[in-house]
Amino acid sequence: MKVVDLNCDMGESFGAYKLGRDAEVLKFVTSANIACGFHAGDAATMRRTVKLCLEHGVAIGAHPGLQDLIGFGRRDMDISPEEAYDIVVYQIGALWGFVRAEGTKLQHVKAHGSLYNMAVRNAALAEAIAEAVYKVDPELILFGLAGSELITAGRKAGLQTASEVFSDRTYQADGSLTSRRLPDSVITDDERSLNQVIRMVSEGKVLSQQKTDVAIQADTICVHGDGIHAVEFAEKINRSLTAAGITVQPPGATPSR
After folding, report:
1. Which of 149, 224, 232, 252 has minimal Cβ neighbours within 10 Å of its Cβ?
2. Helix or strand or coil: residue 228?
3. 226 pLDDT band (50/70/90 cuts)?
């Protein structure tokens, strides 16, 4: 039986500024990555988003990013592994307080934006993030790009990991995501996205831009929640997976029978 998780970034509103359609997208995903205040989000947004997740039965994860509110955490910063450790522990702790206050628990941690992308290829940063997660709670699941240093570091630290794939991004022959600076890095055709996802989960393969099949582990699929058609696509991908005989559930859930 094939099983996969659908995760989505949530809680990225801040003050008077609203981003994403969280309440609607939550109907179709199984895990939520909640911003912890550094790249987006604030205390009130974290509290509201945790409550929304509980209402929809969606597993909760921390989404720590670089301390770059203006740049939405998408600009690379020259941080040390020690700084990465500190900001990840700090942000997990912030969300953990709201999760604990609602009588529930965190399922996972997924780094955001440039912190995620830097750790994909930087083993020292990846190990610092994995250590931070393990020290806070060794039962947490570390999400990371399939085949990346994050997954290697998580396993080395003794964490359960979830290899992440992307429905709307193209891949290179080495299994990396195509840089957004290059043509055809983002897939805009829904059918092409859905076909790619089904194949990654069912066959463990993805067709690269170089027209070669690349082996890939798909434990969780990222669904972006801030696009114009985010809700419609989240519903479509959920239904397509189910129609293909694939069970959609959080990675920490008891397998369905």
Report:
1. 232
2. coil
3. low
